[in-house]
Amino acid sequence: MSARPPLPPFTRETAIQKIRLAEDAWNTRDPARVVLAYSPDTRWRNRVEFPVGREQAQALLERKWSRELDYRLIKELWAFDSHRIAVRFVYEWHDDAGQWYRSHGNENWAFDDDGLMVRRHASINDQPIAEAERKFHWPLGRRPDEYPGLSELGL
Questions:
Q1: DSSP code for 54
Q2: Which terminus of the chain, N or C, has less C-beta within 10 A?
Q3: Looking at the predicted structure, is the pLDDT value of residue 1 above 70?
Q4: What is the reported pTM?
């Protein structure tokens, strides 16, 4: 197992770097890639699911991205300490019927000394929106550096 910089203890700068790396990975919608940032025995709380380990986390992400189409995510720092980061996030997606949603949430993350996430607790609420209300319009994949963050978008 290799380290996943930036490593704890976090500073404001390294917490923001860690968050952006997570956002970038999740925007790939590649479950096999995403789970490499988590410890082999990671524990999650995600809505009503409680996966344990990378395999279960990957299965959750596979189900997620088969339902949440054209997914685009922005994460923002809420708080941090030496081995923990609290994040607020918003993502937009649509279902197979074409209904768009804006999902708002908060995550609490805990890391081991190698920078792997050992705990992820997420609370998420879905808001149906009209396609014209969308705010995330970059091409699928990584959010461009010049694209505004949540605060700048008024979210």
A1: H
A2: N
A3: no
A4: 0.97
